[in-house]
UniProtKB/TrEMBL annotation:
Gene: trxB
Enzyme class, spelled out: oxidoreductase
Protein's name in the database: Thioredoxin reductase
SUPFAM superfamilies: FAD/NAD(P)-binding domain
Reaction equations catalysed: [thioredoxin]-dithiol + NADP(+) = [thioredoxin]-disulfide + NADPH + H(+)
Keywords for the protein's UniProt record, in alphabetical order: Disulfide bond, FAD, Flavoprotein, NADP, Oxidoreductase, Redox-active center
Length: 309
């Protein structure tokens, strides 16, 4: 019987494992298919993590985390969790290989991944001019022109954020109306350095060995193409919440979810199911920053220790 099963080995899962084992829990397993670290390991430049003295890669930032977090007894099971269900007062964790584990508590920290827009060159230039995080990468384009792709709240909010540091922001959207809050749209309309490029489809990102050099768009009405001269493209067309293990045999989810498939939690990362917690990008209202995910993991672990007595 596990005291705690942690599903996911990113910053939230690792930090939860550290706090849980250091806090006295003895049987704690973190399930993560690959090497721990999370999505941030794919970032080429990180300079906004507290206490970090210089710019480093996401891989370098996370390099020392697993060893520290496993120092007090956290075990790493390199397995994919396929399903989590209730078994009496406890939980049953099943892996894709057919193994089963019973746990007194579960922390779900699988995260989410950005949806791709699907234009030519998106994969090739990701991390070399294409980003899905303005907070992470916006500073590198200070005083330069950037393009933001999307028409929802996230896209407009990030465009407004970027407009405060960039010389110009092209807001690129396939429709001529936005799916965002009226107040957010008003901010966009009032920003002098945001140019709305609407009712267009993205043809391809332009670039060379140094990275992105521009974005080609085509007008949906006339078919006319236009090249936007920008070294930075930010894509915000939604996210995929990695929530599959919470889906039950009858098609429902083990706990309450929002319309985007994110787990509903309270301030202590508790779901509506006793003993089940969620942390990091998989939860509602997540800031999608390493430091915030780590804080979620610590918050959850502290309450789990109290819950288990």
């Amino acid at each position: 019987m596990l005291d705690l099963a942690i599903i996911g080995g990113g910053p939230a899962g690792l930090t939860a494992g550290l706090y849980a084992t250091r806090g006295g829990l003895k049987n704690v397993i973190m399930f993560e298919m690959g090497m721990p670290g999370g999505q941030i390991t794919g970032s080429s430049e990180i300079e906004n993590y507290p206490g970090q003295g210089s710019v480093m890669t996401g891989m370098d930032l996370m390099a020392s985390w697993p060893e520290q977090c496993q120092k007090f007894g956290l075990k790493h099971e390199m397995a994919e969790v396929s399903n989590i269900s209730k078994k009496g007062d406890n939980f049953l964790v099943k892996t894709a290989e057919g193994k089963e584990y019973e746990a007194r508590s579960v922390l779900f920290a699988t995260g989410s991944v950005p949806k791709k827009a699907g234009f030519k060159g998106e994969n090739e230039f990701f991390g070399r001019g294409i980003s899905t995080c303005a907070t992470c990468d916006g500073f590198f384009y200070k005083g330069k022109e950037v393009a933001v792709i999307g028409g929802g709240d996230a896209a407009l909010e990030e465009a407004y954020y970027l407009a405060k540091m960039c010389s110009k922001v092209y807001l690129v959207h396939r429709r001529d109306t936005y799916r965002a809050a009226p107040s957010t749209i008003e901010n966009i309309k009032k920003s002098a350095n945001i140019e709305e490029v609407t009712n267009v489809s993205v043809e391809e990102v332009l670039g060379d060995a140094s990275g992105v050099t521009g974005l080609k768009v085509k007008c949906n009405k006339t078919g006319e193409t236009r090249d936007l001269p920008t070294p930075g493209v930010f894509v915000f067309v939604g996210r995929h919440a990695l929530n599959a293990p919470l889906k039950q045999e009858d098609g429902t989810f083990l706990c309450d979810m929002n319309e985007n498939g994110e787990v509903v939690v309270d301030l202590k990362m508790r779901t509506n199911v006793k003993g089940l917690y969620a942390a990091g990008d998989i939860r509602i209202e997540a800031a999608k920053q390493v430091v915030c995910a780590a804080g979620d993991g610590a918050t959850a672990a502290v309450d789990i220790i109290e819950y288990l007595g």
